[in-house]
User: Fold these one by one.
Assistant:
Number 1:
Amino acid sequence: MSKRNYSRREFVKQNSLAGLGAVVAIGLTPDLIADYVTGTGAPAVLGGQKLRTKGWPEWPMWNPATDEEQVLKVLRSGVWSRAGVVTEFETKYAKAIGAKRCLAVVNGTNALITALVQQGIGGGDEVIVPPYTFIATVVAILQTGAMPIFVDSDPETFQIDHKKIEAKITPRTRAIMPVHILGLPADMIKIMAIARKHNLIVVEDACQAWLAEIDHKKMGTFGNAGCFSFSNSKNIPIGEGGAIVSDDEAFMDRCYSYHNYGNPYGTAIGEVGSGTIIAGTKLRMTEYQAAIGLAQLKRLEAQTTKRNENAAYLKSQIKKIPGILPYKLNENVTRASFHLFPFRYKKEEFKGLSRADFLKALDAEGIPCSSGYTPLNKMAYLENVLKTKNFKLMYPSEMLDYKKYMERNQCPANDQLCEEAVWFGQNMLLAEKSDMDDIAAAIDKIHKNADKIKNQK
Ligand SMILES: Cc1ncc(COP(=O)(O)O)c(C=O)c1O
């Protein structure tokens, strides 16, 4: 169909013959054919008119007129390894987050590893983590030699259920790694109280939570350290990139040293002339990455405001539809970053239409959507890691019994959450308010036609 907006009569004239042939061919009921011909809203997945033919804001955004000057300057300078532009990015990012210091690194995964290692986390330790996250969170814990211990999710907030943390603390627990997943803040007030009570380190995985806040304090500044990602889909897209923020100067000096082979930096100096002082690695951000980051950072504040406004509006519209349960923000959240917009889909209210078929139907209406994460506490990598030489050296054999490990790490609420979640991407929240109405209308259309979709598949 052409992109021109036809009147209903024109549309019927243009499409009735060919369209009718198509719908008869896929075996629709007379009732659906009637819907189709009169344009009253047969679902697109069954051959009806697509609710939305317009696209969504493209991602990443890039405006040559405003964004390229500094990048080109860097390219032409030949100074491509870490220098002044990376420092400028760190200074501006620290300011945006409200932290004393920021260290830019190659990606979010290595920001997490660096923070954990420089907080002294390693083999023999347990680190508490939610299962509703991207694999990189758990990868970082495993890379230090520590054992991830999963705490169930709160299905309403999609975040770690802070009420279930204390039951998982053992004498080996050294740290909590809360994740502000989807850009919605985990309850840091409650988590920090638990950490203080049990003397635990807190490294926040804020890789999806740029500018998100509780009581106007930014995510990443509650714990001992906060880590961020700037990969391509992220709200500050650099392609690859990451950052650690903290107010702890000595810790940040150690992180700097670690990311630069362990060479002396700031207060991390060792004996004069002693050369490399700690076991480090190389994780330096390049100057051209930082130049891209500076351009993206300029958009972040306004875009975050827009995502918050559109998310609140979309939530208010779709929560009216039976079976759609949008996210709930934790208490005292003053701002989220909405890397994703999540809701739970209850198929019982959609005549038993499966989530997979709901997603297909929604996509067919021109609303891209996804089912999100699968349970990270149940994947093969965990059995594999428990068998490794290093883990055998670092843990007693009863801790390496996979069956026991699985029992200890069950997260039933998260299992159900993973079966019910539906996400929209952050770029969709950068469209206009009327575009949010399209999303709500498409869900409503599927709700009204759930029976037909289920039976006609
Ligand atoms: C929650 C979370 N943690 C960690 C990471 C790792 O970041 P990166 O992909 O930059 O290594 C990501 C991003 O993909 C993430 O979403």
Note: Residues 1-40 have pLDDT under 50 and may be disordered.
Number 2:
Amino acid sequence: MVGRYPTAQLLAVGDGRYLIDCGEGTQLRLLEHRRRLSSLRVIFISHLHGDHYYGLFGLLSTLSLQGRQEPLTVVGPPGLELALTTAAFHSRMQPGYPITFVPIDTEAHAVVYEDAQVRVWSLPMRHRIPCAGYLFEEQPRRDKLVKDKLPTGLTPAELSQLAQGQDLPADPATGRPAVAHADVSVPAAPPRRYAFCSDTLYTPELAELVHGVDLLYHEATFLHGLRERAAQTHHSTARQAATLAASADAHRLLIGHFSSRYKQLDAHLQEAREIFPWTELATEGLVISV
Ligand SMILES: [Zn+2]
Ligand SMILES: [Zn+2]
């Protein structure tokens, strides 16, 4: 349907750029929204249904044509590497940059990736084929120094020591007394967390794994009137997504992956908000900050 593209989300944390799923047309959408493909660091794929990864081969090829040399990590279910390398072999495509595939156990809740910005866990989904969601947790930020509380005349080295959380001993040479880090800083905000729950049957046990997240994305393919159809096809309803958000004590909920049978999405929003008022629709081009 026009205006309803397959799944892809771009997550920005500090200078890290992470792509979550890569349905057909993802690279064109990213260009339309003026996101540079070259800044991508890692791509997370939830499962091998076409609406979640058919755009990946094209994206990887484009990065090569653009002369990318920086390594790229691709995290996803087993089989993803074979699917891509088979396509690459038959089209004689040889990427000009190293790609590291990280096959994950889609039934486990485990750390699957970590760098200076984020730590990422897999979330077991229940779908027709192996499928994982991902929980992104920002790395702890440093406490912030409060300018007004800092003694004057500190050297850059002393400042950086304080910024790193260390105390300064007294300096007999200048007569400066000891400086305790806790006295000159305010604690950093707790790390922000984002959970991406891809195609799945309603799975109440997920609430425990994503408890207290700042933002929860959950699929809501159907309205509750079609809950039997949802169960048959291993999908969820808007009401189920909202119920999960409520029991997980999430701060906000984003619902998406709507069946093309629905021309309007007002009913999805209403159904979810009856249970969880802090719900938004994941629509094309939506930018949301956490
Ligand atoms: Zn699927
Ligand atoms: Zn899907």
Note: Residues 49, 51-52, 199, 257 surround zinc ion (ligand 2) (CB under 6 Å).
Number 3:
Amino acid sequence: MSAAGNILIIGAGPAGTRAAEVLTGHGLRPILVDEAPDSGGQIYRRQPPGFKRSAKLRYGFEAKKAEALHACFDGLRTRIDYCSDTSVWSIENKTAFTMGPNGVDRIPFETLLLCTGGVDRVLPIPGWTLPGVYTMGGSQIALKAQGCAIGRRVVFMGSGPLLYLVSYQYAHAGGTVAAVLDTARLSDALPVIPGLLMGAFTLAKGLWYQNWMRFNGIAIRRGIRPVAAEGDDRLTGLRYLTAAGRERHVACDALAIGWGVKPECQLAELAGCDMAFDAMARQWLPVCDAEGRASAEGVYLAGDGAGVMGADAAEYRGELAALALLADRGISAGAARRRHLKGRLRRLMRFRVALERALPYPEGLAAALPDDTIICRCEGVTAGDIRRGQSLEPQEINRAKAFTRTGMGRCQGRMCGIAAAEILAHHKGVPLSEVGRLRGQAPIKPLHIGIAGEAAEDDPERASSI
Ligand SMILES: Cc1cc2nc3c(=O)[nH]c(=O)nc-3n(C[C@H](O)[C@H](O)[C@H](O)COP(=O)(O)OP(=O)(O)OC[C@H]3O[C@@H](n4cnc5c(N)ncnc54)[C@H](O)[C@@H]3O)c2cc1C
């Protein structure tokens, strides 16, 4: 395939769909790659063939938006080159390396639009590797995609909007929710009420979920601190400290944990985008301007992959980045619309900032984890290993990786990287920004052994990095 003029979009969620809509509307034919079997992204994930639950049942208040986005995508199918079930595992020299139903392939491009979304922000706790412990998003995917619950008696713990949404969805679907445990305190929200009102509808939905659960007898506790997930060979309960510091135990056979969403930005890094530390998100994000232009030439970013702002913002940012791309190609494209979208995004950003303060990531929790807590599940590295591995070395997370193998396994640090950096920064007594980030490295997603061999044969020079 020739790269001449090729526009490659990675991600068929709200951002990627709206970007493709704009480009096709101007007579262009982008290639769109997504590792999911169908479009919709995380929030508007579609159900597998043969499942017949209504949109209302799956998406609740968001049913109309989900249907509109699905209809938009379905109308685009003949006007784009769509590769579903296809993961991009590396980007190098304006070429995306993919793995799909027909094995490995390469897609050369001239312009890249990254709409890769986010993934659960996870904080390890003692016992989190026991069977029965899931991420918040994973527990929602089971329910949303396939109508399955992760257990018979489920505890939801963490913070962020998904905590209340997913626990409500389980209870509403007939599941037994043993408790909803929030590490945020009510007092966190009080100073930011004006900002929260910028997203009045989202705020109202969150309050409605909580009230519905309280009315139905579900315990909601705020300001808690997790102690440990317990069980011998599988989860039987969770110990935690109440806001008043009293230890409590709640019996459960499944636990969903999550502290919001973090951007998937390894591909942006591999595409050569500059990264900068974002104090609010407490992580490194790809740099881009207000319309989504990244620092690397010909690369645009949109949606949660460029910084988490939610699904409505993802649609606006997808449209905006595509309009910017067109303008950069000299195609006159909706200057007024771009101004309008930027205005809406500024408003949503004020809401986003308030939400982050109202339901904050619990600073200090990872740093205080006992030495024997597993941090990197793939390589079995504990908090103590990270602390010990760094006692003589400079405070840099990639050195910790080299010494301890943290983040060297299948997930490439996507799950453990944030906690490992927090532990390291605390141990060294330096700000989080100073320990750096785990550098994105191919393959960013696990490759089957057979496929890795195929990729190596295809390009022997790259074999050692696979
Ligand atoms: C598990 C989960 C559940 C969520 N549930 C809700 C919810 O119920 N309600 C809500 O308001 N918000 C929810 N959110 C947040 C919401 O999904 C996002 O705000 C919104 O979907 C962002 O849209 P997006 O287009 O930026 O990304 P997404 O919708 O995440 O879409 C990104 C797409 O990129 C694809 N992709 C990523 N990396 C690759 C790769 N390397 N190769 C190929 N394809 C790739 C993914 O398969 C995905 O389809 C959830 C987030 C997560 C992570």
Note: The longest strand covers residues 153-159.
